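<tokenise_the_fold>
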Amino acid sequence: MVKLKDIAHGRSGDKGDVSNICIYAREPKYYEIIKAQVTPEAVKKHFKGMVQGEIERYEVPQLDGFNFVLHHALDGGATRSLRLDSLGKSMEAALLRMDIELSK
């Protein structure tokens, strides 16, 4: 078991109450592992209580990456939220703490 950060890196941002997280495999060999385990359902479970809406995943195989769009994830967004991170800049770091099972 490893953390996603051990096999991937990422970046996050926002648009209103929507958080956008891009995750890229550190090496091409990790792409399929991430694809199989970092599903919209797994991300929703990982962010339990924080993300109130749907999660969409867009695959970008040419870059060994994924773009996750988390709806209703920022408590209203920068102009409405009292969260310390109302822009969702730390959402990528939170996702990278997800546990991943490497193939045996």
Remarks:
- Residues 2-100 form one domain.
- The two ends are 10 Å apart (CA to CA).
- The longest strand covers residues 8-15.
- The chain has a mean pLDDT of 87.
